[in-house]
Design goal:
By secondary structure, this protein is mainly beta. The protein is 12% helix and 40% strand.
Length: 148
């Protein structure tokens, strides 16, 4: 009886089935590090980082800080740089005030990027955009500053 329940729970809680919601009236101050997915409808004042995960910034959501994730969907506002290792989707109401580093990008009419777009082909064997912070030779800030 307990064995079955444990198996069901463990298979249902793999890294990508866990979703954290930051609701409209919520303001998070500080950096966020996560695995799985985060859906932001409120406000985050800090950097958001994941090595494996999906970040979604809804139309009502705002982020004041840098974003580093494998997959990113933005329909709100980001005041900072965005690194998307695998896929970046910019919906029609998205506004990014910062530089964007991407491997694959989808951009709908109306989306705004007030900064530069830089393609990074992770399939050609180059160093990935994301990595373990302890193993990286360069910090996110240095990567962004290097361009200027």
């Amino acid at each position: 009886m307990f064995g079955k329940t444990t198996k069901t729970v463990s298979s249902a809680t793999d890294g990508h089935s866990d979703t954290t919601l930051i609701s409209r009236e919520t303001i998070v101050t500080g950096d966020i590090h996560f695995t799985g997915s985060v859906h932001i409808e409120g406000s985050v004042k800090g950097n958001i980082t994941t090595e494996e995960g999906l970040l979604t910034v809804a139309n009502s959501g705002t982020v004041e800080g840098d974003v580093r994730a494998q997959r990113v969907v933005i329909d709100g506002h980001v005041h900072g740089n965005v690194l998307a290792e695998e896929h970046l989707e910019l919906a029609s109401r998205s506004v990014i005030n910062g530089n964007v580093y991407y491997s694959v990008i989808e951009m709908v009419k109306g989306a705004q990027v007030n900064g530069s777009l830089q393609f990074h082909d992770s399939s050609d064997g180059n160093q990935p955009l994301l990595g373990h912070p302890d193993e990286a030779d360069i910090s996110v800030g240095e990567l962004f500053d290097e361009e200027h």
